[in-house]
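Here comes a specimen:
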Amino acid sequence: MRILTRYVLAELVKMFLVSLAALTGLMIVVGVVREAAAQNLPLGQVVRLLPYILPDALRFSMPATLLLATTTVYGRMSGSNEIVAAKALGISPMALVAPALVLSFLVSLVTVWLNDVAVSWGRNGARRVVVEAAEDIAYSMLRAQKSYSSNRFSINVKRVEGRRLIRPTLTLEARGRTPAMTFTAEEAELQSDRREGVLRIFLQNSTMHIDGKMTVQYPGFYEREIPLHDASRANTSTGVPSWLSLQVIPRETELQREEIERTEQEMAARAAYQMLSGDLPALQGPDWEQRAKDYRGMWNRLHRLETEPHRRWSAGFTCLCFVWVGVPMAIRLRNRDFLTSFFLCFLPILIVYYPLLAYGVDGAKNGTIPPQSVWAGNVLLGLWGLWVLRKVIRY
C-alpha cells in the first residue's frame, strides 16, 4: 500500500513541478513585458521587478497546474486499467485519491500565503521599483516621445541632449489649496533622490505661471522638488484593502467600524443642532451631500475589508477543490490524452466557478450579499466532486 501511495505521490509531484515551472515562467515573462511596456522601464529595473512578480504569477498558476497534473496522472492510470486492477486487489480507490488530496491541501495553504504575499509585499515592491525609476523612465519617454506625464506631473520638451532638456514645459496639477503651476524654461535637468524621496528639477531662466493669474520670472537656475510618488507613474492605491496583508486587515476593520460609528454620531449631532436652530435648508445643501458621499465610502471600504480575507482563503483553496473534482473526473473519463481530460474538467470550472466567484466578490464588496458568499464556487465544486467520487467508489 505504501509503495502504491508513494508511486502516485511521486508522479503527481513530478508532473506538478514541471507544469508549474513552465506556466509560471510564461506568466512572469508576460507580466514583466506588460509592466515594462506600460511603465517604459529600463532593463535594470525590469530585472529588479522579477522577484515581486513571482508570487503573483505563482498564485494564479498553481491551481491550473495542479489540476493538469491530477488529470494527467489519474487519467493515465485509469486508461491503463491500473485503477481497475487496484480495486480487483481489494484496494479502495480512496487509497489512490488520498495522496492527491493531501498534496492539494498543502498546496492550498501555500497558495493562500502567496495570495497574501503577492498583494502586500509583491505589489508594494513593484510599485517601489517603478517609483525609484521615475528619473530613468522620464528620460526614456522624453527621448522617445518628447513628453512624460504622471498623476500630478507632466513635462514636454523640444528635444533631449544627454541629460539636458531643451525648451521644457513643466505642469504641476492643482492639489488642495495649491494652485496649478506651469513652468517654461530654456533648459532643465532631472535628478532623483531616493533617500529623500523627491525628484529635483533644475530649471534655467524659467517663468512660472500660477493658475493663469500670476507670472513670476526666475533668472538663472531655479530648483523645484516633486515627491517621487507624484512624479512616477506607479499605482497610488496602496491603502485599499486588496493591498493589505491578512495580518493587518482585522485591525483595519476595527478602525473602520470605529470611524463609521464616530461619523454617525457627528452627523446625528449636527443634524439635531440644525433642526433645533431652524436651519432646515442646510440639511439638503452641498455640505450634507459630501458628508453622505464620504459616509457611503466608509461603508464601502468596510465591506471590502470584510470580503478580502474570505476572497484570499477561497482563492487559495481552489487548489483543493480543483483536485477534488479532477481526480474522480479523470478516473471516470479513462482517457490517456492528458489535454482532453484537463479541458473536460477545466471547461465547466471556467464556465461556472469563476463567474460565480466574481459575482460573490463583487456582491460582497458592495455589501449586497454576505462576504462568506465568495465560498459559493468552492462549495459547488465540492458537491460536484463528491457526486463523481461516489460513482468512482461504487462502480
About this structure: The longest helix spans residues 93-132.
